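Revision sheet: C-alpha cells.
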Amino acid sequence: MTDQVMAAIDGSQFSEGVCDYAAWASQTLAAPLTFLHVVDNHPQIAEVDLSGNIGLGSREHLLEELSQLDEQRAKVAQEQGRLMLKAAKERAIEAGVAEPGTRQRNGTLVETLSELENDIRLLVIGKRGETAHQAADHLGSNLERVVRTLHRPILMVPDGYKTPEQVMIAFDGSKTTRKGVEMIAKSPLFQGIPCHVVIVGGETGDNRSQLDWALKTLRDAGHQAEGAIRAGEVEETLRTYKQEHAIDMLVMGAYGHSRIRHLLVGSTTTAMLRRASVPVLLLR
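Predicted:
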C-alpha cells in the first residue's frame, strides 16, 4: 500500500490526538489510513556481573530468569500494542474512515518508519512518546530523530483534536517554503480553510514580492489566503500572529539555514515545537 496516511501510536497521552488528526487527514486527502505500533524489544534490565558475589551457577540462574522476564515483557508489550491498534481502528471507523489498517513491528520507531518511508504520504505523530518526560515544553527525542530521518511531511499533533479552521504558513521565500506553498496549493488537505502566509522581516521589496507570489499561488488554486510581513523576533512574532487570528495549525519547513527553518539546531523552531498547542505540519 502506497500513498497512505500513517499514524504512529503508543501508550502516551497524545495517541488519541494522533488517531483523530490521522482520521481527519485520511478523509480529507482521500488516502488510506494505517496505524503503526512499534515494539522496542531492547532488554529493560542490563546484565549485571555478580560472579564476584555469588557462585557462577547462581549467576547463570539469575541471567536465565532475567531473560525469561524480558520475553514476558515483550509478549505483554505486543499484546498491549494489539489492543491499542484495535482501539485506534475502531475510533477511526467511528470517525468515518473506511477500512483503516494496522501494523505492528518490532524494532525502533525511527528504523521502522525509515523502512516504510516509500509507503507514507503523511506521517502523524505525537509531540512526545509514552516514555518521554511529561513537562509541557519537553520535545520527545523520537520526534527529533524521525524529523531528521524522514523525507515526508510530518504532522506533529497535541493531545486533543480540533478540526483546523485557520492555518498559518511560516514563509521566508526559500526553496523549501516555496515548495511547501505549492504543495499546499495542490493538496486537498486545506481546501476551504483560510491560509495565512506570514513573513517575519522588514517591509522590503523582496519580501513583498515573495508574499505576493505565495498569495497568488494559493488563490489561483482556489484557496482563501491572506498575508502579512511583520518585523520582530521570529518565534514571538509568529506566536503573536497565531493568537490574534485564532490559528489552529502551523505549517513550516523542517530544515534549512534561515531563521524560520532551523529545527532542533537553532532555537526558533525548537521553541515553536516545544510550546506548540496546535498541530505543526513540517515539510521537507
